[in-house]
Amino acid sequence: MKKIMIDPITRLEGHGKITIFLNDDGSVANTYFQVPELRGFEKFSEGRPAEDMPQITQRICGVCPEAHHMAATKALDDLFHVEPTSTAKKLRELLYSAFFVTDHTTHFYILAAPDFVMGPDAHPAERNILGVIGKVGLELGGAVINTRKQNHWIIQTVGGRPIHPCFGLPGGVSRAINEEERAKIEEIAKASVEFGKVSLKVFDDVVLKNKVYLDMVLSDTYTQKSYNMGLVDKNNKVNFYDGKVRVVGPDGKEFCKYAPREYLEHIAERVEPWTYLKFPYLKKIGWKGFVDGKDSGVYRATPLSRLNAADGMATPLAQEEYEKMYSILGGKPANYTLATHWARLVELLYAAERLLDLSRDPEITSPNIRNIPTAKPDEGVGIVEAPRGTLTHHYITDEKGVIKKCNLIVGTTNNYAPLFMSIKKAAEDFIKPGVKITEGLLNRIEMAWRPYDPCLSCATHALPGQLPLEVTIYDAQGNELKKLSQGI
Amino acid sequence: MKTLVLGLGNPILSDDGVGIKVAREVANQLNNPQVTVAETSAAGLSLLDSIVGYDKVIIIDAIQTEKGRAGQIYRMGTEDFSLTKHFSSPHQINLATALELGKMLNLAMPQEITIFAVEAKDITNFSEKCTPKVEQAIPEVVKMVLEDLVG
Question: What's the gap in Å between the CA of B136 and the closest CA on chain A?
Fold first, then answer.
């Protein structure tokens, strides 16, 4: 077999690459995936005032600036040893809930729905949002655009600026909301709850009632028994904004629960020679390779992991859907990667319900939005759930609050190892000797990747914020057999 | 005619910020109340949100092609959107999808769209500065945008 070097120095041209090497008999010998890695952020932030980090870090990602803004803000609370006011915390969570509504809506309808609504073998020209709207109807298409637009209005109004909030401060937020704004937020939240219910109905009609899809969801190819990570509140219910990080094993038992400052006791990073990416894993179990199971330190941080890691949802309609989901999937934890799309919709409903509750909170229009810090800054960690996974910001500063060091673990980074494993398994299960390699086949490999919704800044202004991806298959002699690309 | 000049990109990611830098310079030099100059680092459907309601839109962005030279400037019109062979940027197909989606949903889509793209060298290292050849292309792109607005 001809040897082909995978050299991570090779320029990736701003897209992800899955490379599959075949044996002589046509079975899969090896699978690799590479994504472009953004470099130099630590150096870039050295010497900058920590108070700028909510503004700076939200520029890292064009898809989830709000997540970075919030993690950075919480890191500042910790850095300056200041507790935000009750109203500030609620305003932050309100904005954050609206953000989750927009982000999960976008992901489901643009990225997930095409595979299920149009079918995994549909022509790529149809397997997109246009095809989906063609099938589910213009009214729902309009509702997708409208839900996003309305919730973006909330983010802009509460956050002070479109897309990139100028909102988070150590100890609070920069502006309060008035009654007129609050009332409009409440109306938008009510409509968003209805939209969440409709989206779950779409999933029910299109996926759950279709035996072929349900079998695909429950198939071994798309199953991975890794640990699950997510933020939980004091009742162990899913919370995107605050709480402790809880990790639950593939057997359903709680493995650990840690406060933000303790993250380095629990997470370490593995280096591999064929990629610049580092793979986080659970330190106390150790790195055992790209394998799943109780004895491997590989963990997942996705919407499904969050639901697996919690004991339930904090709002009633989402809790009902959570219970329905687990009853159909055969109990907790659910290890079916494709069910991540379902979990994402349950989260969408929760985010909308939470938004509604917060909009009705008696404190939400209070002017008491900030506690001024008085302590000297030194070190701070802030953790939130980004839509794509647990997001950690860690800053070390001098006594004036100027950054000396920073470390970020972004949502998608948590999932590098499981993502790779999911792709590898799909490749090995679908590409077999004598089986013709079609676009539909390669799409089924990509379907292993899509639930993770990898977010990388090279997709900054690509529609729909999707990672451009190329899948290439080489035969045993190293000749290129087939290439498939999306968004390129 | 309502016109939008929209700089796309990430201002802290080296050459990925060129679109935004051009837009800012256009705003400095322009004195026309009919023209809105904006910038966005937003992804996805937010691009659609930005362009709805305008008659004419000029987009400025970074691009990476297989054979391009850093600082090279491309101009693409609506008629170029169906062609996907020459450029390996995600933007072309995705912008075309955005336009189709807008039309499908009866949103007020612009009739005229022009993209100015600058070949980027580095879009993976964090920096507030563009690389030299890209930086040098900025005044030329600004000139082209201003001419397009008048013409």
Answer: 22
State whether residue A131 sits within 8 Å of chain B by CB: no
Look over chain B and give the mean of its residue pLDDT values, rounded to a whole number: 85
Q: Indicate the Cα dihedral angle A329, A331, A336, A341, nearest 10°.
A: 60
- Cβ contact A398:A376 at 8 Å: no
pLDDT 10s digits, A283-319: 999 999 999 999 999 999 999 999 999 999 999 999 9
pLDDT tens digit string along A90-126?
999 999 999 999 999 988 988 788 888 888 787 777 7
- Give me the residue from A133, A463, A468 closest to B95, CB to CB: A463
**Looking at residue A131, what is its pLDDT?**
84
Q: Which helix (H) or strand (E) holds A316?
A: helix A316-329
Minimal CA separation from B92 to chain A, in Å:
9
Angle between helices A179-203 and A86-106 (to 10 degrees): 40
Q: B71 pLDDT exceeds 60? A: yes
Alpha-carbon distance B1 to nearest alpha carbon in chain A (angstroms): 24
Query: Could you say which of B12, B88, B100 has the minimum Cβ distance to residue A130?
Result: B100
Q: What is the ipTM, given to two decimal places? A: 0.84
Which chain A residues have a beta carbon less than 8 Å from that of B125? Answer: 38-40
Rounded to two decimals, the pTM is 0.91
CATH fold for domain B3-150: Rossmann fold (3.40.50)
Averaged pLDDT for residues A141-163:
92
Residue among B88, B101, B127 minimizing CB distance to A130: B101
Domains and CATH numbers, chain A: 16-35+415-486 (no CATH), 83-221+337-372 (1.10.645.10)
Between chain A and chain B, the number of residue pairs with CB atoms below 8 A apart is 127
Q: How near does any CA of chain A get to the CA of B79, in Å?
A: 19
**Cα(A305)–Cα(A248) distance, integer angstroms:** 9
Which of helix, strand or coil describes residue A485?
Answer: strand
The shortest CB-CB distance from A59 to any of B12, B43, B123 is to B12
Mean pLDDT over A312-331 rounds to 97
Q: Which residues contact A374 (CB under 8 A, 6 or more apart)?
A: A82
Query: Which of A486 and A236 is assigned the larger pLDDT?
Result: A236
**Cis amide bond preceding A333, omega within 30:** yes
* Burial class of residue B1 (count of CB atoms within 10 Å of its CB; 0-12, 13-18, 19+): exposed
Is A155 in contact with A98 (CB distance < 8 Å)?
A: yes
